[in-house]
Amino acid sequence: MTPTELLPAPPPHAAARRALLAGSAGNLVEWYEFGVYGCFATVIAANFFTPHPGTPGGGAEALVATYASFALAFFFRPVGALLFGRIGDRFGRRPALVLVIGLMTLATTLIGLLPTRADIGAAAPWLLTFLRVLQGLSAGGEFGGAVSLMVEYAPPGRRGLYGAWQSFTVALGLLAGAGTAAALAAVLPAEALYAWGWRIPFLLALPLGTVALWLRAALDEPPGAPPGGPPGRSAAAGPTEAVDATDATGPTGPTGPAGPGEQARAVVLGIGRIMGWSAAGYAFLVVLPSHLQSALGASFRDALLATALVNLGFAASILPAGLLSDRVGRRPVMLGGALGIAVLAHPLLHLLQSPGASPQTRAAAVLTAGVLVGLLAGPGPAMLAEMFPRRVRCTGLGLSYALANAVFSGCAGLFITALTARTADTAIPAHYAAGACALSAVALLTLRGNDHREPLR
């Protein structure tokens, strides 16, 4: 018996709160970095992807190259989901979560130290892209492990709320990234920001990641971990529902997919259910700053202010949406978000582009967009976790999320920027978000009304 196993187990609710904190911390670090990358896309383009580095603006081609690097990292997410998902399912949630946060922190910090194209020439964008690939691998494993941990620790009737903390810390990370970028833009002249100021937010990932790593290293495995399975002390059984060792036969809900074929169909269905969340989330929360600058002529500060507001609306709606889904079900809440974006995406973007719109009206438009995305992101993690049994949960829900994000999030900036430049249609972000949400609404109709009340397996 190991010394860890001799320690008394913490009270169930204390263990659940600690797991929630440890699971959320890594998400905050990850999405802080992605938010920073989105906010500084024009700066990164100028320093890494232009023939004449250091020139503010960087040009449309450099911005497209920046988003191509962004998209490439997303396509390594499914690889990370498979790799770290298998570790999480075979050896435990804790080792997988410790590995992903360590890798993410290392890669993000190295970006802050990376020489620019002015320093080392054409090698600079390749090195940046390599570090983005490492981040993609890490991010692919983050979601499956963190959501599995949170939902498996959730008290009965609170899976939606516990899972929503994953999305909430995503919002906090994006807000922190946008807020840091806005603060630097306010205090530094443009020349200093392009020369060295952009490095500061990436280097801040080191202390943030160290704290997250410390929290995760002290984790217990969730209640119900199979005997002789994942190493490490299992938390005392308590707040979660009992985990059934047998697999039921339902393909889409807590009854779960039974065999590999049904598991693959569940992954495809999961992608369909969250494609609107992925597409609209990145169109509004990450791509918006550079789109407002390059397509609508907004200043860097105004674009960052709009991004901060849309992320504020997103953050404010996530936890209430998760809690509401515990009461009325995942389907009505997520359908409301998907249909709301499908109907309102164009009117909201029109308000942002209208010269006669007041600042208050524009602020209300971006806040509304954020709230609608939050209706999808709040119940989304628990909904995905309920689709897979414990033995494949990390891999199944992580792969669904990673593939959806690779296609509909990672390509969002590249697609929107390139198509806007080619067609001069400034409503491309609205077309993209509305179309994806309309298709997602169809998949969400397959959700059953009582999935949120069934015990996890």
Describe this structure in words.
This protein is mainly alpha-helical and 457 residues long. It is 74% helix and 0% strand. The protein contains 21 helices and no strands. Helix 2 runs parallel beside helix 6, helix 15 packs across helix 17 (359-377) and helix 16 packs antiparallel against helix 21 (428-444). The longest helix has 31 residues, at 123-153. It is globular and about 55 Å long. 60% of the residues are buried. Residues 1-11, 53-58 and 227-251 have low confidence and may be disordered.
* General form: globular
Pattern of helices and strands? HHHHHHHHHHHHHHHHHHHHH
Helical amount: over 70%
- Detail the poorly predicted runs: 1-11, 53-58, 227-251
Number of strands: 0
Largest sheet: none
Secondary structural class: mainly alpha
Total of DSSP H or I helical runs spanning 4+ residues: 21
Radius of gyration using CA atoms only: 21 Å
Average pLDDT works out at 81
Strand content: under 5%
> How many angstroms does the end-to-end distance come to?
28 Å
Brief account:
The chain has 457 residues and is an all-alpha fold. It has helices spanning 3-6, 12-39, 41-48, 59-75, 77-91, 93-113, 117-120, 123-153, 159-187, 190-197, 199-203, 205-217, 260-285, 288-294, 300-328, 330-353, 359-377, 380-385, 393-408, 412-423, 428-444.
